[in-house]
Amino acid sequence: MVVLWGTTLPARAEPSLRLVSTVTWEWDAAWFGGFSGLELSQDGSFMTILSDRGTLAEVALIRDTDVLQALSPLSHSEMFDAQGSPLKSRFRDIEGLAIALDGSVYISFELEHRVARLNTETGVTIDLPRHPDFARQAKNTGLEALAIHPDGRLFTISEAAADATGTTPLYVFDKDRWQITHRVPLPGPFRPVGADFDDQGRLYLLERAVTPLGFRNRIRRLDLNTAPIRAEVLLTTFPARFDNLEALSVWQDKSGATRLTLISDDNFFPLQTTQIVEFAVSE
Length: 283
Known about the structure:
Blueprint: E1 2-4, E2 16-25, E3 35-40, E4 46-51, E5 55-64, E6 67-78, E7 94-99, E8 105-109, E9 114-118, E10 125-127, E11 145-148, E12 154-157, E13 167-174, E14 177-185, E15 191-197, E16 203-211, E17 214-223, E18 230-237, E19 245-252, E20 258-264, E21 274-282
Parallel strand pairs: 1-18
Antiparallel strand pairs: 2-21, 3-4, 4-5, 5-6, 7-8, 8-9, 9-10, 11-12, 12-13, 13-14, 15-16, 16-17, 17-18, 19-20, 20-21
């Protein structure tokens, strides 16, 4: 386990994270900012991002010996409802992004809590059926994290605090309906904001805590095949180590090492920044 700005605990044979790069990204465009969803190509050379104002962008990642140096936007587009009309503000607070191996794109929303399939050619979103729990979620604690398992199943988890059992539900979309497959332990002040699976089916969960001194983050790796779920803490930060990290993508570099790429949501606020942070996982 790695604790940035803290103490590294004596470790048994545990995975660890190595910080590879932190890039502050600036771009002079009205659509730029508020990024809360992220997916990287398998080789880490290209990323798809979305903002919580309904913009999807495709970006080239410029690297030197696998270390990120710069970013170059290639395209951006807006999203529409099933009738082809622009998404109204209440319906476009997009938080999660997941892209399947067959190219299918899914996005999750707050305010009007739901998950939709996105046609990237037309920008049209088609809502999936909703779980009854979604309607009971609070305004700002919706479906922040969205991820696709290697077997093709779609998972989501909300930003809500743990319930009386100290856990939060993990939902899977299977056979045209949402089911609760697991209950994820949620110790401490952190809440889920991003997720992705590696090729072994392990779930990497990005969590955030908001403090008066700044944002904190925790990254855990969950083995969903154990009961109870085995959770390995890979990272815990003190306040203000990074900006408002909200999304995570898992991929492999040329050496075969697992990489985690994260992006921050600047909330379109001048005192915040858009950061791209990358870690390598060591087993």
